[in-house]
């Protein structure tokens, strides 16, 4: 008996040849990283019953009630966002080509609708709060286009992955394998972090409890900013898999762009695993939680996700396996669900924060917590803090003293040695990297993002990047931070010299020209400077010499562990 297939959205072979000929005359849209993840799961059936990016009725239904217009349960809006500028090039009723960043055509889309979403409402309903501390809300406001394009898609080719091909399976690939192996009951475990002993114990218990085979199904698309990169994680997963029984456990990678939407995300993950042929799905404590909100409280309750999945248990087509957090009980020398620990027993646990501290400082990580081969993989990509790359991002008005302080810091860091140092001064970047750009808001933002990208590459490769642009807009600075923080250290330094002082200095005569109307949209005169909310350092050059300011920055770097105490 053949296995039951999930519907895919790929063109038939004869239709594909016709499409490849037709797309030569079609307008196209280049997809972002998140859109690529979404498109792949649309085409291969991971997002069934969706047949394309959501139109307005489906979108509103999902946002407000977690249901498509058909009534089908679906908790996360899957949308194709574009800028107003791109939307003006599209016509309702036409077809467009969806391409990857290299220009490879992946799918054809019918432009059935274009609409402007209420992003604040989307944030409140989907993520529980319009709070920029939530990574998906920050992405929604800072990186998502203001126009959503809805319509059916026809797949041409699946996106190419050059990494870990031996672990990549479509929903129908897995269904075929389960059928071949005789796996009638399969419990899936979702993870975006490396697996340690507690996870192994939890998953083994879940398999035993459900009398099912176990699928370790980690996400390798977009996860939470700051998460361990997927290359390191997969090497950790491969190490952990050696500790599971070969015949009853398998691993497959899921190219999903997570939203960290807590309860809704758990429900979404369950539906996706159902499409992949699983019969059971583990939902643990604080499933897909993004951490603390701007008030310092958790976005979601610890078991909100379990409650929401339970509420819809009758229609999701997959059975939830709820689990408490697992802790190591010293007296028993084993892991136990936290609700089964007696008051007189000693609970041991290492939080993610504590694990990162121990990796950062080169401290011992106990074998009761993790396997030595997993720790060894983590140490390869998590060197001690004072060996990691970092970025110093200065922001402030023209004439505030950013470049002077940046130069002073650069010299002191070069004097100390140990890591290459690169200064990305605003004027020099304008001359060498962004000479074709104007001083419009759009182009100033683009210039800052270019600086951020270069700094991220320097940081990723263990160097020090010193950036000294004006960077007047909060959202753009936030994008730069999100770009760099997962790769190393990041310090935002607000050089808070007042407008009056900056204008009094005016060595280049720019303020005088702006006052005379010769320079338009000049920051501080006829264009705003948005003061940073929570910079790592605030410096006012009125009461501080460049040398003193540089010393203050070095002390801050030392306190963050990014410099050794002997640097200055």
Task: Give structural notes.
The structure is a single chain. The chain is α/β, with parallel strands linked by helices and 568 residues long. The chain folds into three domains: 13-155, Sulfate adenylyltransferase (Roll); 165-381, 3-Layer(aba) Sandwich (Rossmann fold); 385-559, Rossmann fold. 37% of the residues lie in helices and 16% in strands. It is built from 20 helices and 20 strands. The protein has helices at 13-22, 33-43, 56-65, 84-87, 119-127, 135-142, 171-181, 197-210, 230-241, 263-275, 304-311, 352-361, 372-381, 402-416, 426-432, 441-460, 474-484, 499-505, 510-515, 546-559, and strands spanning 28-30, 52-53, 80-82, 95-99, 105-110, 113-115, 147-155, 186-191, 213-218, 249-251, 280-283, 319-322, 326-329, 334-337, 347-348, 390-395, 421-425, 464-468, 489-495, 537-539. Strands 1, 2, 3, 4, 5, 6 and 7 form a seven-stranded mixed sheet that branches. Helix 9 (230-241) packs antiparallel against helix 13 (372-381) and helix 16 packs parallel to helix 17.
Summarize the structure.
The chain is built from 20 helices and 20 strands. The protein has helices spanning 13-22, 33-43, 56-65, 84-87, 119-127, 135-142, 171-181, 197-210, 230-241, 263-275, 304-311, 352-361, 372-381, 402-416, 426-432, 441-460, 474-484, 499-505, 510-515, 546-559; strands spanning 28-30, 52-53, 80-82, 95-99, 105-110, 113-115, 147-155, 186-191, 213-218, 249-251, 280-283, 319-322, 326-329, 334-337, 347-348, 390-395, 421-425, 464-468, 489-495, 537-539. Strand 9 (213-218), helix 9 (230-241) and strand 10 (249-251) form a beta-alpha-beta unit.
